[in-house]
Write a structure and sequence with these properties.
Blueprint: H1 2-17, H2 21-39, E1 40-44, E2 52-57, E3 63-66, E4 70-72, E5 75-77, E6 85-87, E7 93-95, E8 109-111, E9 123-125, E10 138-142, E11 152-155, H3 212-221, E12 230-234, H4 241-256, E13 261-264, H5 271-280, E14 282-285, E15 296-299, H6 306-314, E16 318-321, H7 325-339, E17 343-347, H8 353-359, E18 366-369, H9 372-377, E19 386-390, H10 396-409, E20 414-415, H11 423-436, E21 441-445, H12 451-461, E22 467-470, E23 486-491, H13 497-508, E24 515-519, H14 533-554
Parallel strand pairs: 12-23, 12-24, 13-14, 13-15, 15-16, 17-18, 17-19, 19-20, 21-22, 21-23
Antiparallel strand pairs: 1-2, 2-3, 4-5, 6-7, 8-9, 10-11
Protein name: 4-hydroxy-3-methylbut-2-enyl diphosphate reductase
Family: Belongs to the IspH family.
InterPro entries: LytB/IspH (IPR003451)
């Protein structure tokens, strides 16, 4: 139709200007070989097949569209339909809009809600055939079937090269150079039914290709055909506010000041997060002698002892305290009660960095209790004023037993009215405890150095459900999924959500096909904590200096 319109236009011009036939034929050749090919280009994986193709326009961004149903600006493009064009106010042609007939949701399909790529509506089904815009920005990774939840997204780690018909296959889930029939190597029904094989976030690794055959064998032989496999994704999970605040503090300092930025201890107990920050210029240290005088020093989320603060002041360090406010609250109570003459009982593990910081607030009158046997060793008189606090990441099960024993032995003992255990620790353990007894396996994503991650594993194990702690999907042994019907998946308070979503992608797609259920029985109220005060003041000073510098240049 487009060529036909051009021909009609040229005939009209010839009649008015009386151009010779030779010029007319020359203009037709220019239209056919220059104008039309440069207007639109379509590259198919196979000839006469629009299962996956590339569309390039001079007046539109570069779009990569896949799947049997493709929408451009609310316009449905099928292999047997053509794009209708209309003229806009400036006389230029653009893709027109057409009202689509309202379709009922089929049982095996999910439609995106409030989720747009360049004004494109995205449609995909539950088996992982995903359409995306290919701009290297976002793509659909997960959508909940209940409560009309919005889809989760994940950043691509690089912009893919889609030139050519076969392209580069970034997905390790395909397991073969010929297993996928689309430019991306994934998303096609011909060999790789996963929507998640391509594009993991920066710094996070994908499943090794050499494990694919083991995964395939385990997935196909895990359960007899016809038995439903369920993956329960626990919510709340992942970063708590104290962790996200600490990470944001380091990133803000790195963006505002030149690296290196020194951090006392690991900012949070997650190796992947710390590695990412190290790559940006953060240096994690344990001894302040490693920090040059006058440098910036950030305290980790676990808190710090007063002795460290004194050393930092002697070295004229710029101190930025990223301690979790809940940990700081415990420090304040210990310091205050010690001055009032109380004996402090600290429930926690003596080698944990948080307990070390709390203990040194009042080392002469603080006693560490790790278990019930330590309670029996205490020998306080009835006249002693007692006050107990806990490590914020303890197991509620163990802590409640120790507290019960303390109150039986010392009925007059006091504590913080609002409690010491972190809200995130409590909520994650409660949510897991409600569902783990119904499952065959619990997978906890977190680092081996994370206390709250270990307590999630412990909470599941004492309820007779096997549990495993893994840092990334590369550390997971898929052979243990043999005959596993129901899995519960959660993550520690210092674990990035991207790592959890990677597990979801693998387990809900080929070859496992676990059906995803969101377990969100507990609604978490996240506190609104600001960044450290001295960091905010530094930011204000930097803004003020920038404004003054701009004024001086104008003058």
């Amino acid at each position: 139709m487009q060529i036909f319109y051009h021909l009609i236009g040229m005939v009209k011009i010839m009649r008015r200007t009386r151009i010779s036939v030779e010029y007319y034929l020359l203009s037709i050749l220019i239209i056919l070989f220059i104008v039309v090919p440069s207007k639109w280009k379509v590259y198919g994986v196979r000839k006469n097949q629009l299962n996956a193709f590339e569309l390039i326009s001079e007046k539109q961004p570069r779009l990569i569209l896949k799947g049997p149903n493709i929408y451009i600006n609310n316009f449905s493009l099928h292999s047997k339909r053509k794009i209708k064009e209309r003229k806009n106010g400036k006389g230029a042609k653009s893709v027109g809009t057409r009202k689509k007939r309202k379709q009922r949701r089929k049982p095996n399909e999910v439609y995106s809600q409030n989720f747009h790529f360049l004004n494109s509506n995205i449609r995909w089904n539950s088996r992982g055939k995903v359409q995306n815009n290919g701009m290297g920005k976002k793509y659909v990774t997960e959508c909940s079937f209940k409560k009309n939840r919005l889809c989760q997204t994940e950043l691509w780690h690089e912009k893919k090269d889609y030139s050519g018909t076969t392209g580069r296959r970034e997905s390790s889930l395909c397991g073969s150079s010929t297993g996928c029939g689309s430019p991306t190597g994934c998303g096609s029904s011909t060999g790789c039914g996963s929507s998640t094989g391509c594009g993991s976030p920066t710094g996070y690794t994908t499943t090794p290709t050499e494990n694919f055959q083991e995964m395939q064998r385990t997935g196909e032989e895990s359960l007899p055909e016809g038995i439903e496999k369920i993956l329960y994704l626990v919510s709340p999970r992942g970063f708590c506010k104290g962790v996200s605040r600490a990470i944001e503090t380091v990133e803000e300092c790195l963006s505002m000041f030149k690296p290196p930025i020194y951090v006392k201890h690991k900012i949070v107990h997650n190796d992947i997060v710390c590695k990412e920050l190290e790559n940006k210029g953060a240096i994690f240290i344990e001894d302040l002698d490693q920090v040059p005088d006058g440098s910036i020093l950030i305290y980790s989320a676990h808190g710090i002892s007063p002795q460290i603060r004194e050393i930092a002041k002697k070295k004229n360090l710029i101190e930025i305290d990223a301690t979790c406010p809940l940990v700081s609250k415990v420090h304040v109570y210990v310091n205050m009660k010690a001055k009032e003459g109380y004996k402090i009982i600290l429930i926690g593990y003596k080698d944990h960095v948080e307990v070390v910081g709390t203990f040194n607030e009042a080392p002469n009158c603080t006693y560490i209790v790790e278990n019930i046997n330590d309670v029996h060793k205490l020998s306080f008189s009835e006249n002693d004023k007692l006050f107990y606090v806990t490590q914020t990441t303890l197991s509620m099960d163990d802590c409640s037993l120790i507290v019960k024993e303390l109150k039986n032995k010392y009925p007059h003992i006091q504590t913080i009215p609002s409690g010491s255990i972190c809200y995130a620790t409590t909520n994650r353990q409660k949510a897991l405890n409600q569902i783990c007894e119904k499952c065959d396996l619990t997978i906890v994503i977190g680092s081996q150095s994370s206390s709250n991650a270990k307590k999630l594993v412990y909470s599941s194990q004492i309820r007779n459900t096997p549990a495993i702690l893994v840092n990334t999907i590369n550390d997971f042994d898929f052979s243990i999924l043999h005959n596993v019907k129901k899995i519960v998946l959660t993550s520690a308070a210092s674990t990035p959500e991207q790592l959890t979503q990677k597990f979801v992608h693998v387990l809900t797609n080929y070859p496992f096909f676990y059906k995803l259920h969101i377990w969100d029985s507990i609604q978490e109220i996240v506190p609104k904590w600001k960044l450290p005060k001295n960091l905010l003041s530094l930011i204000e000073d930097r803004k003020r200096q920038t404004q003054e510098g701009g004024r001086s240049l104008e003058e």
